[in-house]
Amino acid sequence: MSETTSMPTVTEAGLNAQEVRDRMERGESNAVKSSSSRSLADIVRANVFTLFNGIILTAMVMVLITGSWKDAVFGFVILINTGIGIVTELRAKRTLDRLSILVASDYLVRRGGKDVEVSHNDIVLGDLLWVRAGEQIPADAQIVEDWGLELDESMITGESRTVRKKPGDTVYSGSTAVSGMALVRVTAVGAHSYAATLTAQAKVYKKNVSDLNKGINTILKFMTFLVVPLCILLIITQMNAVGGFAHAFTTGAWRQAVVSAVAGVVGMVPEGLVLLTSLNFALAAIRLARKNTLVQDLDSVETLARVDCLNLDKTGTITDGTIVYDDCALLDGADRTATLQALYDLSNEANPNGTGAAVLAGLSKQGVTAGTVAERVPFSSARKWSAVSYAGDGPQSGTWTMGAPEVILAALDGDHADLLARVNRLAQDGNRVLLVVHDPHAAPAGFVDHPTLDAGAVPMGLVTCSEHIRDDAEPTLAWFREQGVRCRVISGDNPVTVGAIAGRVKLTGDRKPVAMDARELPEDLDELARTLEGVDVLGRVLPEQKKAIVQALHRTDHVVAMTGDGVNDALAIKEADLGIAMGNAAPATKAVAEVVLVDSRFSHLPDVVARGRQVMANMERVASLFLTKTVYSALISFGVVLTAISYPYLPRHISYIGALTIGAPAFLLALAPNTRRYMPGFLRRVFAFSLPCGIATALAVLLSAWFVPSLMGWARPVAGDDLFWLRSMCATALFLMGIYVLARVARPLNSWRGWLVAAFAAVGVLGMCIPFVANFFAFGLPGGKGLLTLGLQLVIASLLFATCMWIIPRLLPAATDSVISRYKRLRGKK
């Protein structure tokens, strides 16, 4: 704690040392525990303890118990899938934590009659705190004495204009002093401050689950009830197939029975789809990170594809929060050089506010420099004007005043209704308007100590400034319009001003945006939803209203994205389907957002949405591959149970075939460019594809398992070398059907996709001919009669596939609808 001097003289002494210690012991300090994101333990727990991992791990342990480790290679999917999820989320956490580190500023407090500097956490309840220009207020307080304090409360209220404060007013943590100074008494610290209270409910981690993952999880839950009894039935069937339980345990054949049962169970689990979904989301997140876009929740990548409603905060999104000088429109009789010189000097104060700094920057570009001022009256929010006086003769001499037009015109002689109407029109266009007037007479004695406006002053110019609109705002909004995303601007500012800015960036194209004051919005959510359909711009919006707006849009089945940077946006960002925070946002706002635009550039949003659409469109394509495997594995398992035959292939077969006809091709297809917009009906399309393909594949394999032994003249039950050849032939037929399914998914084949299918087909056949690969995966090529039988088997499988692809979609549309309806009911949807 250090001591400082040279502050204004005040009578209050503040807390003494003992009072400070007592408050510290009672926990009444400004220290607050704040976490920007989930802990390491939370991330690991969420990725490790999943239903999918449980099913695969159980199956892997059962196979390992039998000693057939080659058939347990599918278990590596757990490690890969879990690792991808953990690494990606940890990477996001580290990036976010770096963004969220606050500068540990020291603050000046008055204790024991002296002014001393203390850290943010050492401020206690009841402290007398100095608030100086440029400082962020660390705790809620009440003003005791004031020296022209003006605050920027946009992080709390969303209102971008500065607010003048006076003794007795309350100031909130998170606000920033832009000018002046005040002595305040701390009334709330730490977790009890206004900002902390507002964001407490927002700082609850919200896990987004994508529709794709919901579908996978629903299938897994359904299979949990199916797999257990089916696994038991498969084990009983396979035990009987090797001679019964007694013989199986005596000879050790039970191991083969367990491995066969696991082959049926593992085939039904779309483990590759879970892996590919995580991997594809992770790659999308990495690609976005290269464009300074941080995806905190992998599942939110899919949400990007479905967004049809985007709520934008004005300040920080469309505008960058800075003020720019636009023009000084000269009035009748005004001398341009003298007026611009006076305007520069009026703005050239020791600590100019945002508008003054913008005027200085704009005039400096025009070559205007500082003049010689005789006397100066600084700008005051109470007066609403400032003044300078020049000595000598000529157009520059006399007193010049600049400030709020309505205040200055009210003090002047004459009728200025036309000029005031002009001011109002400029203000309605989103401008900040100042008036410059000139009194040719020298300033009266005592003018600086007791400034007054001379009624005879003459208006010389109207100064217009505006919020700086981001260069990328208009093209970005145009992209969203073309993509069918409805954009609304929601701000705490005046609706007229916000509406004018929205019009300048063509929020609604050639149509003028419809603006509305949020104070007129209905409270009922259904009525609010109807009102929002006809509104493009909302002003004077409170934090609770932003949240209600998102809830109302959900009532009409919109998928809502919400952008923001202030504490006042945190509740709405958390409520939205997709929360998007700017990189310079409040830490609590970034913590609850799914996406953080690290460099705060609005132009990254099209990349964000386009990447989500690419992921969703491609994942729909490859999901059909994986669900086809689930369908035919379930049907084959039921066929094996009902006909009491040995399972027609091993787990290692399905690992080999799945890798070449589903896993690896799906990975490449998922990364392919795809600009298709997301369309409703995902489930219908996937099931409509998977059901006929799965039925055709199951029939081809089961027919082979049923009739090949008879064609080959093998004894029943098939065992020993005969069982090896049968499983090899059935696996070959399964591989052929997998290639057919891949070809249908990859269409059109007159591009690189055709070469992709041909390449994986060739690799699969070549692998079966390599001794090491063939031995590891238990493939064999029969000779003589077996080779002819295999050829006949593959021809019949091909014809069967073509027939099923033509007939089944025509016979089972009602069945497909029934499956989808049951699927949706399982998800709890109407």
Approximate strand percentage: 15-25%
Note poorly predicted spans.
99-104, 826-830
Major β-sheet, in short?
Answer: 8 strands, antiparallel
Give the C-level CATH assignment of the largest domain.
Mainly Alpha
CATH topology of the largest domain: Calcium-transporting ATPase, transmembrane domain
Helix content: 40-55%
| CATH architecture level-2 label of the largest domain | Up-down Bundle
Global Rg = 36 Å
Shape: elongated
Give the rounded overall mean pLDDT. 81
Our measurement of the CA-to-CA distance between the termini, rounded to an integer number of angstroms, reads 63 Å
For the record, the count of structural domains works out to 5
Number of discrete helical segments = 29
Secondary structure class reads alpha+beta
Number of DSSP-assigned strands: 22
Q: Going by CATH, what is the homologous superfamily of the largest domain?
A: Calcium-transporting ATPase, transmembrane domain
Keywords summarizing the entry:
830 residues; alpha+beta; Calcium-transporting ATPase, cytoplasmic transduction domain A; Calcium-transporting ATPase, transmembrane domain; eight-stranded antiparallel beta sheet; eight-stranded mixed beta sheet; 22 strands; 16% strand; elongated; disordered C terminus
Account of the 3D structure:
It contains 29 helices and 22 strands. It has five domains: 2-33 and 105-200, Distorted Sandwich (Calcium-transporting ATPase, cytoplasmic transduction domain A), CATH 2.70.150.10; 40-100; 211-286 and 614-826, Calcium-transporting ATPase, transmembrane domain (Up-down Bundle), CATH 1.20.1110; 292-319 and 471-609, 3-Layer(aba) Sandwich (Rossmann fold), CATH 3.40.50; 325-468, Calcium-transporting ATPase, cytoplasmic domain N. The two termini are 63 Å apart. β12 and β13 (385-390) form a beta hairpin. Strands 1, 2, 3, 4, 5, 6, 7 and 8 form an eight-stranded antiparallel sheet that branches. Strands 9-22-21-20-10-17-19-18 form an eight-stranded mixed sheet, with helices on both faces. Mean pLDDT is 81; it is low at 99-104 and 826-830. Residues 108-201 form the P-type ATPase A domain.
